[in-house]
């Protein structure tokens, strides 16, 4: 195979780990490849909270432009960063088998403060979803903005007088930097598509599409499609506290979804299950249920608050 497949990736350690997974799959099939690191807008501005930037695809836009401009042939993204509507001219080529989906609390000394009524803990995160869910459980705590790649955020936590910070388990574990001072937040529902990696290519690029089809993980692709349909129907993005998780067990799709107000004081939850062949509309139907229960007012409040 003479053609070299150029794989676009962000420059962070985690992004490179993701790109190498795609690279390894392609090499195993006999394809020639080259990694092309590209800096994203989200990597340049590490100060402004994501909800204030308000740009859809802040971590994917630069790679998508490189793809459309034929500087690369495949772009590799964390699927939770990808807008639910792909840019015109780009198609999903493969979703890799999902990794850990849960969030973690990395604490400074010990997590005993979580059991202390009235204690005002300082918790860091840039995610409006994590902030809303945390405040729902611990309304007295203070939330601080934390931006940057995984290593930058861990260093920031060490330097600041915070009690802890929230991270995705997948991000820490994939590059082997999960501290011993961390606990899984089993009560926190993850972001739609958290823990999943996607490869995209140009529409009508049958060569790359066929190359990626061999490592597309169908169960992960279906689960994340359902979660992202839930997100899209609620018209959510990085500025809306929306959580969703779908998994397949014994040919049955199980789904949980949630919408919170920004301060966590209002929330709507739903769960449902269906056979694999009947599961395509689960995410849409679950979102419609939440909107009908009063979620539409919360979505409107969040939009008007921007």
TrEMBL record:
<dbReference type="GO" id="GO:0005737">
    <property type="term" value="C:cytoplasm"/>
</dbReference>
<dbReference type="InterPro" id="IPR036803">
    <property type="entry name" value="Porphobilinogen_deaminase_C_sf"/>
</dbReference>
<dbReference type="GO" id="GO:0006783">
    <property type="term" value="P:heme biosynthetic process"/>
</dbReference>
<dbReference type="Pfam" id="PF03900">
    <property type="entry name" value="Porphobil_deamC"/>
</dbReference>
<comment type="pathway">
    <text>Porphyrin-containing compound metabolism; protoporphyrin-IX biosynthesis; coproporphyrinogen-III from 5-aminolevulinate: step 2/4.</text>
</comment>
<feature type="domain" description="Porphobilinogen deaminase C-terminal">
    <location>
        <begin position="223"/>
        <end position="291"/>
    </location>
</feature>
<dbReference type="InterPro" id="IPR022417">
    <property type="entry name" value="Porphobilin_deaminase_N"/>
</dbReference>
<feature type="domain" description="Porphobilinogen deaminase N-terminal">
    <location>
        <begin position="5"/>
        <end position="207"/>
    </location>
</feature>
<protein>
    <recommendedName>
        <fullName>Hydroxymethylbilane synthase</fullName>
        <ecNumber>2.5.1.61</ecNumber>
    </recommendedName>
</protein>
<dbReference type="InterPro" id="IPR022418">
    <property type="entry name" value="Porphobilinogen_deaminase_C"/>
</dbReference>
<dbReference type="InterPro" id="IPR000860">
    <property type="entry name" value="HemC"/>
</dbReference>
<comment type="function">
    <text>Tetrapolymerization of the monopyrrole PBG into the hydroxymethylbilane pre-uroporphyrinogen in several discrete steps.</text>
</comment>
<dbReference type="GO" id="GO:0004418">
    <property type="term" value="F:hydroxymethylbilane synthase activity"/>
</dbReference>
<dbReference type="Pfam" id="PF01379">
    <property type="entry name" value="Porphobil_deam"/>
</dbReference>
<dbReference type="InterPro" id="IPR022419">
    <property type="entry name" value="Porphobilin_deaminase_cofac_BS"/>
</dbReference>
<comment type="subunit">
    <text>Monomer.</text>
</comment>
<keyword id="KW-0808">Transferase</keyword>
<keyword id="KW-0627">Porphyrin biosynthesis</keyword>
<comment type="similarity">
    <text>Belongs to the HMBS family.</text>
</comment>
């Amino acid at each position: 195979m003479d053609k070299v497949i150029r794989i676009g990736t962000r420059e962070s350690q985690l992004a490179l780990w993701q790109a190498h997974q795609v690279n390894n799959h392609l090499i195993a099939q006999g394809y020639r490849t080259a990694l092309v690191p590209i800096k994203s807008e989200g990597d340049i501005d590490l100060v402004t909270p994501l909800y204030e930037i308000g740009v859809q695809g802040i971590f994917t836009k630069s790679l998508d432009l490189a793809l459309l401009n034929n500087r690369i042939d495949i772009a590799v993204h964390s699927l939770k960063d990808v807008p639910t509507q792909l840019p015109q001219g780009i198609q999903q080529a493969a979703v890799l088998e999902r990794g850990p989906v849960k969030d973690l609390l990395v604490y400074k000394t010990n997590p005993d403060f979580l059991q202390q009524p009235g204690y005002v803990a300082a918790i860091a995160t840039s995610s409006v979803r994590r902030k809303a869910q945390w405040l729902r459980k611990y309304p007295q705590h203070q939330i601080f903005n934390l931006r940057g790649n995984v290593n930058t955020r861990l260093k920031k936590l060490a330097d600041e007088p915070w009690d802890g910070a929230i991270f995705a388990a997948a991000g820490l574990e994939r590059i082997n930097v999960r501290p011993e001072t961390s606990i899984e937040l089993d009560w926190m529902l993850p972001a739609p598509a958290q823990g999943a990696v996607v490869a995209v290519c140009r529409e009508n690029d049958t060569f790359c599409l066929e190359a990626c089809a061999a490592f597309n993980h169908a169960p992960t692709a279906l689960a994340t499609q359902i979660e992202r349909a839930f997100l899209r129907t609620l018209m959510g993005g990085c500025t809306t506290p929306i959580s969703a998780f779908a998994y397949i067990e014994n040919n049955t799709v199980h789904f949980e979804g949630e919408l919170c107000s920004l301060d966590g004081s209002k929330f709507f939850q739903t769960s449902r299950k269906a056979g694999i062949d009947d599961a395509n509309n689960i995410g849409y139907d679950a979102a419609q249920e939440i909107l009908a229960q009063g979620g539409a007012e919360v979505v409107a409040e969040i939009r008007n608050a921007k």
